[in-house]
Amino acid sequence: MDYSTQLGSAVNELQRITGIKLEVAADSAEEEARALKQIRCLCNAYKEKFNKNHFLKNLMSGSISAMEALEDAQRLHIAPEERRILFLLEKKGPLNDTVMEILKNLFPSQTKSYLIPMAESTLAIIRPLKATETEHEVSRLAHMIVDTLNAEALIRVWVAYSGIIEQLTDLGRAWQDTSLALKVGKLFYSDQTVFPHNRLGIGRLIYQLPIPICEGFLKELFGDNIPDSLDEETTATINRFLQNNLNIAETSRQLHMHRNTLIYRLDQVEKRMGLDLRIFEDAMTFKIASLVMNYLHTERNSEHE
Are 118 and 182 in contact (CB under 8 A)? Predict the structure, then answer.
C-alpha cells in the first residue's frame, strides 16, 4: 500500500474517532510519510485520552470535573445514571496475566464491567448492578473473587467494595471509600480478605486518630513498658477466644486444644500485659490496645521505607 492510500485511510480514521475532517496535501513521499506519522500520533493520543478505562481512572482520581465527566461519558457511550458497584482488589506483587484472564472471565466486557489497573498491584472493578441484587449478593460476589483467584491461581488477594453508586459522577467518592476500607481492613482485620466500606468498626476510628493520642493511650495503659507484639500462634488463640465471647470450653474445642493449655496461654498474656482476658473489661481493653499497637507499628515501618 503506497503512502497516499495509507494517508487517506489515516485521515478517515481520524474523522471516525474525532469527528474532525482534514484535507492533507503533500508534494513528496517524504511529506506524505511525515503527515501520516503525525495523523497516527493524533489518533493514538485521542484514543488514549478518550479510552474508557483511562476516563474512568481519571474520574476516580478526581482529575476531571463533573461537567467534563458527563460530556466524556456521553462521547464514550457510558451511561451517566446506572446502579454500579466498585470493587478494589489488591495482591502481593504485580498483577499478572493469569489474574487478568480469570477476572475477565468473571467480569466479561459484554456485561459493561470494567477492569482498571490503578497501580502495580491494585485493580478497580466497576460492575453494573441488577435491579434485584442486594448488598448480601455484592458481599458474596466479593468473596467469589477472592475464592476463585485462590483456587484457580493459588493467589491471595484482598477485596474492598463500595456502596451502591447511583450516579457516574459519584465514582470518585466510592473510590475514596473503598481505598480507605482496603487500608483499614488489611491493617486491623488481618484474618479477613473482604472489607465492606461500611463495616470497618473500631478500626476506622483508630485509623483516623492522631498518632500522639494513640501513643498517649498506650502509655496510660502500660506506662513506659509497652509490651511487644504477641507471636502469631498466641494472637490467633486470643482472637478465637474473643470471637467465642470468652468461652474457654468452645475455644478449646475449636482449636483442638486442651483446656489447660488455653488457660496457660491466657495466664502468660496476663503476666506480660497485666490484662486478664477472662474478664470482659480487660478483654475489651486488650482488643483496642492490640489494634492501636498494630496501627503504630505499621505507621512507623512505613516512615522508614
Answer: no
Would you state the pLDDT for residue 246?
94
CB 84 within 8 A of CB 165: yes
Q: What is the mean pLDDT of each run of 10 residues along the chain (305 residues)?
A: 71 74 79 82 67 88 86 87 95 90 91 91 94 89 95 94 94 95 91 92 90 91 78 85 93 93 92 91 91 84 61
Q: What span, in angstroms and rounded, lies between the C-alpha atoms of 10 and 4?
A: 10
Rounded to a whole number of angstroms, the distance between the first and last alpha carbons of the chain is: 55
Rg (the chain; Cα; Å): 27
pLDDT value, residue 1: 44
What are φ and ψ of residue 83, in 5° steps? -70, 125
Name the pTM for this structure. 0.75
Sequence-distant (6+) residues with CB within 8 A of 228 are none
Task: Say how far apart CA 286 and CA 290 lie, in whole Å.
Answer: 6
Distance CA 178, CA 171 (A): 10
Task: Determine the angle formed by the axes of helices 280-304 and 211-222, rounding to 10 degrees.
Answer: 130
The DSSP secondary-structure symbol of 17 reads H
Can you list the pairs that 270-274 forms with residues at least 24 positions away whose Cβ atoms lie under 8 Å?
A: 272/227, 272/230, 273/222, 273/227, 274/222
At a CB cut-off of 8 Å and minimum separation 6, what does 150 contact? 156, 157
Is 55:73 a contact under the CB 8 Å cutoff? yes
